[in-house]
Amino acid sequence: AQTVTQSQPEMSVQEAETVTLSCTYDTSESDYYLFWYKQPPSRQMILVIRQEAYKQQNATENRFSVNFQKAAKSFSLKISDSQLGDAAMYFCAYRRGETSGSRLTFGEGTQLTVNP
Amino acid sequence: DGGITQSPKYLFRKEGQNVTLSCEQNLNHDAMYWYRQDPGQGLRLIYYSQIVNDFQKGDIAEGYSVSREKKESFPLTVTSAQKNPTAFYLCASSIYTPSPNYGYTFGSGTRLTVV
């Protein structure tokens, strides 16, 4: 079974600084997708960024980027120029790349605090 | 606007009662999912359904039941057999096959408390 591990239960960053959230996963599959979701205090889950395993280029969405290391099974999220609105719980997630509506497997989450 | 609606937002259950959480989507998504969220444990999959009239158990299905009679609806029943039902429940949906617009759309959740 696939597992996703986030080893940092809590992180903090100063406003305008950069922070990196870690995620590792375990799988024997070669075709899969990785995601970072954000859950603010409203508890609404918001997709931040996605990465296809077959793509070597790291995904980027504005201030959010990933460092995807396929051989190491590592998928970290970098938030640049942190803003107060970035404060949230962040979840790393894995999904097999099959055509059968496969499930998402989530990590335990990292609570990010942004200090003014 | 398309989306997923979960109701109610807050739900209180007495010991021994069954309660049903509603999840409705108008996104024309094929697959629907129920997750349970507890502090420090992330999201754990309860049940999922890829097509109408079919569903599969997730990792923590004991004490829960679901139905999928319509594509738009995937209600979750928390039965009296679930010994620790107090949690936050999230419903999600997705397109059946991988596509460039890939991932889940989530509802806003239901907070269930046993009183």
Question: How is this structure best described in words?
Answer:
- The complex is a heterodimer of chains A (116) and B (115).
- Helix content of chain A is 0%, strand content 53%.
- With 116 residues, chain A is mainly beta.
- In chain A, the strands form 3 sheets. In chain A, strands 2, 5, 6, 10, 11 and 12 form a 6-stranded mixed beta sheet that branches.
- The radius of gyration of chain A is 14 Å and the shape is globular.
- In chain A, 36% of the residues are buried.
- The model of chain A has no long low-confidence stretch (mean pLDDT 93).
- With 115 residues, chain B is mostly beta strands.
- Chain B is globular, with a radius of gyration of 14 Å.
- Chain B has strands at 4-7, 10-13, 19-25, 31-37, 43-51, 54-57, 64-66, 76-78, 87-94, 105-106, 110-114.
- In chain B, strands 2, 4, 5, 6, 9, 10 and 11 form a 7-stranded mixed beta sheet that branches. A 4-stranded antiparallel beta sheet of chain B has the order 1-3-8-7, with no helix packed on it.
- Chain A binds chain B through residues 4, 6, 9, 33, 35, 42-45, 47, 50, 91, 95, 97-101, 103-109, and chain B through 30-31, 33, 35, 40-45, 48, 50, 58, 88, 90, 92, 94-98, 102-104, 106, 108-109.
Could you tell me the strand content of chain B as a percent range?
Answer: over 45%
Structural class of chain A: mainly beta
Q: Could you give the count of β-strands of chain A?
A: 12
Main sheet makeup of chain B: 7 strands, mixed
Determine the number of helices of chain A (DSSP H or I, runs of at least 4 residues): 0
Binned, the helix content of chain B reads: under 10%
Biggest chain pair interface = A-B, 25 and 27 residues
The CA-CA distance between the termini of chain A, in Å, is 41 Å
**How far from one another are the termini of chain B?**
36 Å
Give the overall pLDDT of chain A as a whole number. Answer: 93
Task: Determine Rg of chain B (CA atoms, Å).
Answer: 14 Å
Number of helical stretches of at least 4 residues of chain B: 0
Global shape of chain B: globular
**Elements of chain A, N to C (H/E):** EEEEEEEEEEEE
Beta-sheet strand percentage of chain A? Answer: over 45%
- The strand count of chain B comes to 11
Our Rg estimate of chain A from Cα atoms comes to 14 Å
